[in-house]
Specification:
Layout: H1 3-16, H2 29-38, H3 44-57, H4 61-67, H5 69-76, H6 82-100, H7 108-112, H8 119-128, H9 139-148, H10 156-166, H11 175-185
Helix pairs in contact: 2-8, 4-6, 5-6, 9-10, 9-11
Length: about 230
């Protein structure tokens, strides 16, 4: 995708949603860290349902340790891989207490050293909790970056590095939010809703998915008049 097209791609997403936010519920950097770690191979909706009561009981590493692995397991048993995740939540809390005084670090290296925390989780926490211009690549971002031609790559890390390189500075802070939401609600995995896509003319995906019978696409929302 050409540099000017990349700028226009993000400009349109930003115009439609100037202040995008993640859909996980959290109250402080620690609960954000736990929520993002729990969201691996699970939906944000399922994580929110499980963590609302959990975070009321334990919104800090010391409280989570006091709660214990078995009770954590009971709270998150509706989430995929809950046994492993419960162990990681407790191990993470212990390491935060032992090595960081119960404070979530603002360093990628230190975050990735925590149990159950990978590069994507670290990027989300650095971006949302600490305002760093990181780009977290989940399944939605990976799909949108490849399908549209924005930043094609064979691995999430490759896509992340390309996105960091091509994303204009004014859009870097919120880039992964716009891409996640676009992939979740418009550029869907099985049937992208091209007829209502605001960047349809910038995207290399072919053939474009036609609108369902009886629906009338909004030409302004779809970006048909963009640049005119």
């Amino acid at each position: 995708m050409k540099k000017a097209d990349v700028f226009e791609f993000f400009r349109r997403l930003a115009e439609l949603n100037p202040q995008p936010e993640g859909e996980l519920e959290w109250v402080n950097p620690y609960t954000l860290l736990v929520a993002v770690a729990l969201s691996a191979q699970a939906t944000d909706v399922s994580v929110n349902l499980a963590t609302r009561k959990l975070f009321r009981l334990a919104d800090s590493p010391d409280k989570m340790l006091a709660l214990g692995e078995e009770e954590v397991r009971q709270h998150i048993r509706t989430i995929g891989l809950f046994n492993t995740k419960a162990k990681n939540v407790i191990a993470m809390a212990r390491q935060l207490m032992d090595l960081h005084g119960g404070v979530v670090p603002s360093s990628r290296e230190l975050l990735e050293a925590l149990p159950g925390v990978g590069r994507k989780t670290a990027n989300v926490v650095l971006n949302i909790a600490f305002g760093q211009q990181t780009i977290a690549v989940d399944t939605h971002v990976f799909r949108v970056a490849n399908r549209t031609g924005l930043a094609p790559g064979k691995t999430p890390t490759e896509v992340e590095l390309k996105l960091e390189k091509v994303t204009p500075d004014p859009f870097k802070l919120h880039a992964h939010h716009w891409l996640i939401l676009h992939g979740r609600y418009v550029c869907k995995a099985r049937r992208p809703e091209c007829w209502r896509c605001p960047v349809i003319d910038l995207c290399r995906f072919q053939p474009k998915t036609p609108a369902p019978k009886g629906s009338v696409p909004d030409p302004l929302e779809a970006g048909a008049e963009a640049g005119q």
